[in-house]
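Hi F.,

I've been meaning to write this up properly since the lab meeting, where we talked about keeping a consistent format for the predictions we share between groups. The idea is simple: the sequence comes first, exactly as it goes in, then the structure tokens exactly as they come out, then a line or two of notes. No screenshots and no reformatting. I'm using this chain as the first example so we have something concrete to point to.
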Amino acid sequence: MEKTFKQKMGKVYIAFVVGLITLVLMVGKFFINKFGFDFIVLNTLISSVIAGSIFITGFLLAGVFSDYKEVEKIPAEIRSSLESILSEGSALKRKDSGFDVQKIRQTIIKFINEFEDGLSDTKDHVHMNCALEVISEFDLSFDDMESRGVPPNYMTRIKSEQSQLRKILLRVYHIQKTNFIPSVSVLVESIVFLVILLLMFANMDFYEGIIILGILSYLLIYIMHLIHVLEKPFRKGKDDTCDDVSIFLLREFREDLRKK
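Output, unedited:
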């Protein structure tokens, strides 16, 4: 698949977009100063409001980032559960040559395909129904294992891995479907808009005012954009960027299974 402009830009994409927006704001500030529309006089109270707004925005970013770090563990947890199921099937295959462990491999490959497809841009990054259905297909292999005399404690352990997969998948669906406290997103957007509006019409030295507006606007808009990106950590397909949670562990596992 051909890379989009966003993917080609990589980690500098957000900086590039925010930089263009900041440049437009600085040009606007230039004309506001030139024609004398800068009527807001700065004082200690306004300076404190600006400083507090930056602190609040950064604090909210820290909250979203902590959740993002937790989500990064999900691909490893999924692969661990899948490998545990495959390991039990392979162990039975060594004892009973009639057991079809290939069916488990095919189910795992299908699951990873559906999981990745459900996170693609064509499915709005939230479609987990097909992947959930594939998890139930493990039941056929489990029934075969029970009929071949696998001890109940082994079956309990392997079925717990299946339940863990469902739990993880529902967690991914919930994260992708919902926003991080929608009111917080509105608060951040309001803070950024009001602070930039205040700086646009603030009465400061001609060039000093433009530079201060550029620096603060860049920081605030960047944080706002970053919060929006981190709210939906899995974006595959055309929206896949370096800021999204990578599922390379699952892709590598799928390729290993295909080789076998």
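Notes:
Residues 44-71 form the longest helix (28 residues).
The chain has a mean pLDDT of 86.

If this format works for you, I'll send the rest the same way.

G.
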